[in-house]
Description:
- The chain has helices spanning 18-32, 41-55, 60-69, 71-82, 92-113, 128-140, 142-147, 159-167, 180-186, 198-201, 234-247; strands at 4-5, 8-9, 117-122, 150-156, 169-170, 187-190, 193-196, 204-208, 222-225, 253-256, 270-274, 279-282.
- By secondary structure, it is of the alpha/beta class.
- It folds into 2 domains: 4-82; 92-282, Rossmann fold.
- The strands form 3 sheets. Strands 8-4-3-9-10-12-11 form a 7-stranded mixed sheet. A 3-stranded antiparallel sheet has the order 5-7-6.
Amino acid sequence: MKQVLSGLPLIDTLEISDDALAEIALILEMRCNFSISIYKDKCMKRRIAIRMRSCRCLDPAAYCNLLRQNTQELELLKKTLTIHVSQFFRNPSMFEKLQTTIFPFLFQKAEADRTPLKICSLGCAGGEEAHSLGIILREHFAKELLRTPVEIRAFDIDADILQAAIQAEYNEDRLKDLPDSLRARYFSPSGSRLKLSPDIRELVTFHQRNIMDADTFEPCQLALCRNTLIYFTRPDQEKILRGISHILPTGGILVLGKSETLVGEVRRLFSTVCPVERIYRKL
């Protein structure tokens, strides 16, 4: 028997059949020019089920009818399918590794080559990761910043979430891994939220781009693509990673999420710097 939440049956992802998923995908493609074919079916079904429960739709057929009639729900579904949850210094040990090992290496190389240090944050969501990098640079590499220009470019496909990232106002829960000293130094109250200081915001620029086109992004020496690949199918994971390899020079650094790894032929393009933190160097 199904469980019931507030009188509404819980919708299991298995109840959204492949045919229903295909119909929803067609509606999204026809009305929003948005394709879910690159994403994992199980992940899409789970997120569609969230919207179905929210709208109190008891079956996929009813939800499809709603999508055809309600533009607002169509947009909410699109956001649900693409949104990435993040926070400042998510997985603190990875940021510590960047601070102690990766950034010193990259600054030394950039200074020797007399080139800017360029960093990419792919699938940046609300900008927490990119801004965390900015905090590390201000805190620990102030002298290096005077000698070497640094550019942090953050990319996401969702225009609305990028606008929120540019505003850089965050709820308390996004700062739970941030030390109190850094919170006091770089954030100020803004109503019920916390506003990031201009000193950090000026280091980061945000751009609406599709991660599937990563090979067309500007070259960089450090690329972070964390907790994003897990939503994509295996062939598209390989395509994205191959694209990232194109924008990294020999010796460039790639950072993936803890539950992600290199796949397919792309594994031959990188050596492992830190297996625990999923940090790799371009060969």
